[in-house]
Amino acid sequence: MPHTSSAKKRLRQDARRRLANKSIKTHLKTRVKKFEAAIVAADVDEARKQGLLLQRSFDKAVTHGVIHKNQASRKKATATRKLNKLLKAGG
After folding, report:
1. Residue-by-residue DSSP string for 24-85
2. Is CATH 1.20.58.110 what the domain over 5-90 is classified as, yes or no?
């Protein structure tokens, strides 16, 4: 356990931030699952909608410092490739 008052404060801050970051990461995972479900169902309109929401969520997570920008970029690129593959197969 921390002894100094600054270390105690840091512990409290870390706990709050850990909860906030966990919430955002859980939200990202949910967005990815919904996007994947739309891809598997071959629902083009829903996949486009979820793809846009997914990209927005990743951008927000980067802005808040929850994930690294390269990780977000990689995940967004993967989602875009899957969406393009669906569009090509469907049309």
Report:
1. HHHHHHHHHHHHHHHHHTT-HHHHHHHHHHHHHHHHHHHHTTSS-HHHHHHHHHHHHHHHHH
2. yes
